[in-house]
Amino acid sequence: MDDLQYGTRNKRGDWAPNEPAGTAPLFAYPPRPLAVLKWLPSYFLPYNVLFALSAVAWWRFVLPDVEVMKTFSVGWILWLFVVNCAALLVFFGVFELRLYILRAQGNRFKYNGKWPSEQKSKAFFFENQNLDNMLRTFGTGMPIWTAIEVAILHAYANGYVPWLSFAEHPLYLFLLALVVPIIHETHFFLLHRTIHWGPLYKWVHSVHHNSVNPSPWSSLSMHPVEQLGYLGVAFWHLIIPSNPLLALYQLHYAGFGAIPGHVGFDKVELTEDASVDSHAYIHYLHHKYFEVNYGDGLIPFDRWLGTFHDGSKDGEARMQARYEKKKARANAAAK
Ligand SMILES: [Zn+2]
Ligand SMILES: [Zn+2]
Question: Is the full-model pTM beyond 0.90?
Answer without folding.
Answer: yes
